Amino acid sequence: MLNTGLEHGSFLFNGNVETMASFIFGLLEGGMLVAPVRGGSAQFDQTIEQLMLLIKS
After folding, report:
1. Which among 9, 11, 15, 26 is most buried, taking Cβ atoms within 10 Å?
2. What's the angle, vertex CA 26, arms to CA 36 and CA 1, rounded to 5?
3. For residue 44, which of 26, 28, 22, 21 has the smallest C-alpha distance?
4. Which positions ≥6 away from 24 have C-beta within 8 Å?
5. Residue 53: per-residue pLDDT
6. How far lies 33's CA from each of 10, 24, 42, in Å?
7. Rounded CA gap, 4 and 40, in Å?
């Protein structure tokens, strides 16, 4: 999915695709762990929004 996004211009991040995939997985996993104590789904939604900004720039 990341490769396709890069090829079509939907994603514009620098670096290795596999490394970015690991980073995204870790970010989402961590977001799910802390969301219950830091604002619930609203906090997790903000994490997703920030992630999308990161991979589109």
Report:
1. 11
2. 115
3. 28
4. 51, 55
5. 93
6. 28, 14, 13
7. 31
The pLDDT tens digits for 16-30 are 999 999 999 999 999
Q: DSSP string covering 1-57, please?
A: -HHHHHHHTS----S-HHHHHHHHHHHHHHHHHHGGGTTTHHHHHHHHHHHHHHHT-
Question: Exposed, middle or buried by CB within 10 Å (0-12, 13-18, 19+), for 47?
Answer: middle
Q: Report pLDDT digits (tens) over 1-57.
A: 999 999 999 999 989 999 999 999 999 999 999 989 987 889 899 999 999 999 997
Residue 35 and residue 10: Cα distance in Å, rounded?
Answer: 27
